[in-house]
Design goal:
Elements lengths: L18 H28 L12 E14 L2 E12 L24 H12 L7 H9 L8 H19 L10 E8 L10 E8 L5 E9 L4 H13 L8 E4 L3 H10 L4 E4 L1 H9 L4 H15 L4 H15 L4 H8 L2 H4 L10 H4 L3 H4 L18 H16 L18 E4 L2 E4 L8
Parallel strand pairs: 3-6, 6-7
Antiparallel strand pairs: 1-2, 3-4, 4-5, 8-9
Length: about 425
């Protein structure tokens, strides 16, 4: 066709003209190529001291590997791997090899896409629809995610889960723990099994996934098995405090396994339970009054706020008042710890936020999800989410009761023995 032709190519029905995405992909391609080049140059600079007998460098650039496509969150990005050649061979035939941390040898998609699969699956998208869903997000060149590919991925995840379940916890200590049971009726079998999740915070302030398993609802026995398993793998030191909702099974199991651990009830769950006992017209003002309790500057002020709440609503909404006051001590236990940690200890949000978009779905889609596959999907979802959990504020300010230090309203107080000389 000559350049003066009057024939105009028509856009195909499935073709999307998106200049912004094209620019983003082009920029990502350039930045990725620069990062890979800089990584290779840094490796060569670190090995500069290695020489051949004739004085020349032992390691040198050796061109690039074939261009390959990496599937990312903004679509396909092309990149070529830098090759480095070792020009000297040791007596045992070993060569120094360069492996890119940015671009692993066999990588075909970013880890963020693998993390997306459990979310799609738990939200009701069947494996047969993965390809269509990703094509809508990433374009027609979306990665091949046929049911066979997903099956292979779940097999790999099963091995990863088994390794994780056997890890040694003897060198770990968790000062705070958060516990919750999650129901995913949308993708579970007819009998609703419960995902039991246990998260812990280390003395350095990092939150980690401690335990996870499928239980029979939130029974005492299921929680007991999870806690005993963690203790058997080396978790000997009892956490200082545990945060959870009103599920009695967890608290009873906790008292059996770690009787010294204090209880802190989740204010998000408690607030919802209280508001469910009153008329909608009252809920806004009652919610505001509850905030006066758990946002009080110290425990004494919180106690006063509870008394004011009881006096204000007791005559007409006695069930709501009873729901709050019967757990008074467990609701205010967080005041015995550093003030920087109160935001973390008032709620089971680290677990709640992970399942916010999937836990309450009740509409089933094509085919139900076996408990084994659901367990693996939730496990991968938790592993991906754990990288984003907020660290504790004011790290290394944890209760040191054994060292003669306690916290009162979030302030460190030195305990002096009675027989100590003045």
């Amino acid at each position: 066709m000559n350049e003066h032709s009057n024939i105009v190519p028509l856009r195909q029905p499935d073709e999307i003209d998106d200049p912004l995405t094209n620019i983003l992909r082009s920029g990502a391609r350039q930045l990725l190529a620069q990062a890979v080049e800089m990584e290779a140059e840094a490796f060569l600079a670190a090995m500069k001291g290695l020489k051949r007998p004739d004085g020349r460098d032992r390691l040198v650039r050796h061109g690039h590997g074939p261009v390959r496509t990496i599937q990312t969150g903004i679509g396909a990005v092309e990149v070529a791997r830098v090759k480095i050649r070792d020009r000297a061979v040791t007596s045992d035939g070993e060569r120094i090899r360069f492996t890119s941390a940015i671009l692993p040898l066999w990588a075909r998609r970013t880890k963020s896409l693998d993390a997306l699969l459990p979310v799609l699956y738990l939200r009701g998208i069947s494996t047969g629809d993965f390809q269509e869903a990703l094509a809508a997000l990433l374009g027609k060149d979306a990665p091949n995610l046929s049911p066979a590919v997903v099956s292979r991925l779940t097999t790999e995840w099963q091995l990863e889960y088994e390794r994780w379940q056997k890890r040694d916890l003897s060198a770990r200590r968790y000062v705070y723990v958060w516990a919750d049971g999650v129901f995913l009726q949308a993708r579970m079998e007819d009998h609703s099994e419960c995902m039991l999740v246990l998260i812990g915070a280390t003395p350095e302030g990092k939150k980690e996934l401690i335990g996870f398993q499928v239980g029979v609802r939130e029974s005492t026995q299921s929680w007991h098995e999870l806690l005993v398993e963690a203790k058997t793998r080396g978790l000997k030191i009892a956490p200082e405090i545990a945060v959870g909702d009103g599920a009695l099974g967890f608290w009873k199991a906790l008292d059996e396994v770690f009787p010294a651990t204090r209880h802190q009830r989740c204010w998000v769950h408690k607030t919802a339970n209280i508001l469910n006992k009153v008329a909608v017209s009252v809920q806004a003002s009652m919610k505001k009054d509850l905030r006066e309790v758990y946002l009080a500057s110290n425990r004494a002020s919180a106690e006063v706020a509870i008394d004011v709440f009881a006096e204000k609503y007791g005559a007409k909404y006695d069930k709501a008042v009873e729901c709050l006051t019967k757990d008074r001590d467990a609701m205010l236990a967080f005041y015995e710890f550093p003030a920087e940690h109160w935001d973390h200890l008032r709620t089971t949000n680290p677990i709640e936020s992970v399942f916010a978009t999937v836990r309450h779905r009740t509409v089933r889609t094509k085919g139900s999800l076996s408990s084994t596959t659901a367990k693996l999907m939730v496990f991968k979802l938790l592993c991906a989410a754990s990288k984003t959990w907020r660290r504790l504020k004011g790290t290394n300010q944890l209760p040191k009761v054994s060292a003669g230090v306690r916290f009162e309203n979030g302030i460190e107080v030195i305990q002096v023995p009675e027989n100590h000389a003045a």
